[in-house]
Specification:
The protein is mainly alpha-helical and about 90 residues long. It contains four helices and no strands. The mean pLDDT is about 75.
Length: about 90
């Protein structure tokens, strides 16, 4: 309730600290941009770590499987070619 009372009185914790350039930002996202701009460097570093960990967990398994399939494909092609060449030579 206190936060609503402060906002009604015109005291907004996001606008009191520093001004944020919102040129080109849709109106419905203004408050989110202000909140993000007010966060300290430690919070941003933690959020970056969380995001990278999430990307790593989702992307790395796919990349490992692609690498494995590429390796299997490269190693099986010469064997296949040798078998075909042998039949042709006979």
């Amino acid at each position: 309730m206190e936060l609503d009372e402060k906002r009604a009185a015109g005291h907004d914790e996001y606008t009191d600290a520093k001004q944020v350039d919102l040129k080109g930002v849709p109106e419905n996202n203004n408050e989110l941009y202000r909140m993000f701009a007010q966060k300290d460097e430690a919070w941003r570093r933690d959020q970056t770590k969380k995001l990278l960990r999430k990307v790593d967990v989702r992307l790395l398994p796919i990349l490992v499987i692609m690498y494995l399939l590429n390796f299997l494909d490269r190693s099986s092609l010469p064997k296949h070619d040798w078998g075909v060449s042998r039949r042709i030579l006979r």
